[in-house]
Design goal:
By secondary structure, this protein is of the alpha+beta class. It is built from 5 helices and 2 strands. The longest helix is centred in the middle third of the chain and has 13 residues. The chain is globular.
Length: about 90
Amino acid sequence: MLRKRTIEQIVRSFSNHRRIAMLCLLDENPELSVSQIAGDLKIDIKLASFYLRKLTIAGLIMKKSNGKFIRHKLTKRGVFVLTFIRTLE
């Protein structure tokens, strides 16, 4: 079982409407770059990068190097968390 601090870190990582939107976007369109995510969500690229870093640290998304671009996609934990979030709607 996960430690309480780890659980807190995971929950805090998706406690923002834009980060939830990122999870939904990556579920629909896996392997997007930070600039594509920022463009789709109409947010600054620095803010998108900051949010992606939080989601990566929590283990909800992973980064994959593809040439000169870094692609992002959901992890199994990210899919599970997104499923949980959708049950709350």
